[in-house]
Design goal:
- It comes from Mycolicibacterium austroafricanum (Mycobacterium austroafricanum).
- GO terms for molecular function: oxidoreductase activity.
- Keywords: Oxidoreductase.
- Belongs to the aldehyde dehydrogenase family.
- This protein has 16 helices and 20 strands.
- The protein has 495 residues and is an alpha/beta fold.
- The strands form 5 sheets. A 7-stranded mixed β-sheet has the order 12-13-14-11-10-16-17, sandwiched between helices.
- Helix 1 crosses helix 5 and helix 1 crosses helix 8.
- The chain starts with 6 loop residues before the first helix and ends in a 5-residue tail after the last strand.
- The structure holds nicotinamide-adenine-dinucleotide.
- Nicotinamide-adenine-dinucleotide binds next to helix 9 and helix 10.
Length: 495
Amino acid sequence: MTVTSTAPVREAESAALSRSDAVIAGLPTLATGPTVEVRDPATDTVIAAIADATVAQALDAVATADEAGSQWARTPARTRADVLRRWYELLMERREDVAVLITREMGKPLVEARAEVAYGADFVRWYSEEAVRPRGDARELPLGGAQMIARRAPVGLSVLITPWNFPLAMATRKIAPALAAGCSVVVKPAALTPLTTIFAVELARQAGVPDGLINVVTTNSASQFSEAVLRDPRVRKVSFTGSTSVGRTLLRLAAENILRSSMELGGNAPLIVFDDADLDRAVTGAFHAKMRNGGQSCIAANRIFVQDGIADAFVEGLTEKMANVVVANGLADGVGMGPLIDERAVASMSRLVADAVDRGAALHTGGTQPEGPGYFYAPTVLGDVPPDAEVANTEIFGPVAAVQRFGTENEVIRRANDTELGLAGYVFTESLDRALNVADRLETGLVGINQGVPSNAAAPFGGIKQSGLGREGSAEGLEEYQSIRFYNIARRATH
Ligand code: NAD
């Protein structure tokens, strides 16, 4: 197996690191003190050591963003749009470098990393287009005597906290609408994957984003960061993507300053296959919904419910696909799945599979840890998973497909909705009526109908129940960074 050249890695990494002083306001580039060590999960080696920001430095970043923000809020929308458009173009011009960096620090195969660059850059393009279409309107008072104008103003300094699983897209999905709306930002990427964000923000600088507008704070001390920064009165908004438990903590903190809050939290997606589904479409859709990002996606198919009549054929088809996935370093050619993010993730897969098998689930493929180094786990299919198995009740976040059988539509809806989380759901059926009826009854923010990859920049992405608050992408994503204000104008009758 050939490993592709590492030259672009070094170039992108050194670009990310040598320019980081320009994007992290007030922070040293290569710290002389403590560092955040970034590991390549495929080789278990340290690939970079970058500054571990102190609380004082994080507050410097807030001060810098505060200063840059007032000017940016007054910058014409067309100028903001042009800068974002140029950033999009630079991300696409440097697509290969960004992709290699994503693979190095996060592990996904290059082909998926390239797809993430296109997906992540698309948010920047989308919001370059939305920036010049701010909505506002005039309203009539029912009793007359006055008119109102409703306007949208930038919400203000926004703190953006992102996870490791999509190091580019989770950052651009927040930064681009914030900038389009006229806000400045402090971004805290996950300590596991900060390099892609640093490099992307360097490209934003090259695109003409003014200094101080986007500040990246890398730190191993996430809770100290949020305790200090979210209490700062200059901050007006927090947008977080990550686990529900951390989201809950941040909402408590946000309550103190009554911060506008957007929360993209954990998922527990049901994927439902009815007897009348097109088998190939269902198997392929389930495979993609499960295996994108090695299963480390918030909208990953978590509980796969298959109707009795099609269950055997479905499990056979899915097993064949999963067993044929090439698992190796994501930089090599032809790889279908790279490593998981860390050792803990591998241990968690082993534990979940052992528990399910103990409780009577059938192991159709996988359940093994390929030779290291690196944090690899074999794509796994479990059939006849009992409802009390842990794998049926937790966010798996890895390459384990857990299949359960069901009999009737009502039964599967009840089981699918039996969770506090409500991010994504999937339905496979050839009946349009059934697809829409089931989609209506699923308690989730989004539903993939006969397809496993529903996300895109034009979609109002987000969860209900404990999967979150607010939406990212689409016009709604811009509104997350805007406050509505109204002027009430008294009118004197002239006739
Ligand atoms: P995580 O909650 O552990 O961490 C997410 C981010 O929050 C990281 O940057 C981390 O450093 C930071 N963080 C942790 N504790 C913090 C604190 N007290 N204060 C401030 N920041 C803190 O999640 P993760 O393991 O990085 O990501 C996986 C989770 O993210 C899964 O639950 C997944 O479903 C969810 N996710 C959701 C979406 C979505 O759009 N809904 C997208 C991707 C991931």
